């Protein structure tokens, strides 16, 4: 299953025009994303508010992540405060997967941002969390926190934005999206060999783990003849014919 580096802003000095900070609201957004990530089987490592962009980059590069996802809000240049609106989704030019993920995220946000034509993808070499990370990177400037309408949109729609972004991630990774976990204990039930646990719900997907007959297994969700399962820390998909519910 995919694993992302989740990097909400650590910029505690960037204040929303309505009060509160970029760090505060982007971490709230990440908090709201976590249940959808867990339910959909997307693993994550997350930075902490006491980190910096540099230490977040270092932590991302120390792992083997399928995507680096940075969550930020924006501000217009000095002298133009409050005049700009829109969502900008940055990616590194030449990164095929970064551009693909950025476009999917942008298309998703267009469905909920009040001015869809102001949502756009932007190639950049100037943002560290895009230029300096090893994984494909998507850097979201969700909206302008110095603009009253944009700031209120972020604050009033954090839950919908969280759901929307994770939905886009599942589209990018080609896995089902789940609203919540539906956990049940189960037992592997095969007549011979092992139960293959795969990275996606298809027999063509790579096998990431194998579980013997009788092994306890945790079912997280069910989709179209497959269980999303956790077997000894390996999260993936197994055919539901070969798992018995306890």
From TrEMBL:
Q: Outline the extent of the SH3b domain.
A: 185-246
- Where are the bilayer-spanning segments? none
Keyword set, alphabetical order: Cell wall biogenesis/degradation, Hydrolase
> Its Gene Ontology biological processes?
cell wall organization; peptidoglycan catabolic process
Domain of life from the UniProt record? Bacteria
| GO function terms (MF aspect) | N-acetylmuramoyl-L-alanine amidase activity
Keyword presence, Hydrolase: yes
Which Pfam families does the entry mention? Amidase_3 (PF01520), SH3_3 (PF08239)
SMART domains in alphabetical order: Ami_3, SH3b
What protein am I looking at? SH3 domain-containing protein
Q: Which organism is it from?
A: Flintibacter hominis
């Amino acid at each position: 299953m995919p694993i992302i580096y989740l990097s909400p802003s650590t910029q505690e000095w960037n204040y929303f025009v309505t009060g509160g900070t970029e760090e505060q609201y982007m971490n709230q957004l990440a908090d709201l994303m976590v249940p959808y990530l867990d339910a959909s089987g997307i693993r994550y490592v997350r930075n902490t508010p006491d980190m910096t962009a540099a230490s977040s980059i270092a932590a991302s590069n120390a792992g083997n992540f399928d995507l680096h996802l940075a969550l930020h809000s924006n501000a217009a240049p000095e002298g133009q405060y409050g005049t700009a609106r829109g969502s900008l989704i940055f990616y590194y030019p030449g990164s095929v997967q970064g551009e693909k993920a950025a476009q999917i995220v942008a298309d998703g946000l267009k469905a909920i941002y009040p001015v869809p034509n102001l949502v756009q993808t932007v190639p950049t070499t100037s943002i560290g969390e895009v230029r300096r990370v090893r994984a494909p990177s998507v850097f979201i400037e969700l909206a302008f926190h110095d603009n009253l309408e944009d700031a209120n949109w972020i604050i009033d729609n954090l839950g919908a934005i969280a759901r929307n972004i994770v939905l886009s991630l599942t589209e990018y990774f080609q896995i089902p999206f789940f609203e919540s976990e539906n956990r049940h204990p189960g037992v592997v039930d095969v007549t011979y060999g092992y139960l293959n646990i795969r990275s996606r719900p298809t027999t063509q997907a790579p096998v990431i783990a194998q579980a013997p007959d009788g092994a306890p297994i945790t079912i997280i969700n069910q989709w179209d003849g497959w269980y999303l399962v956790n077997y000894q820390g390996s999260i993936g998909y197994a055919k539901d014919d070969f798992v018995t519910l306890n």
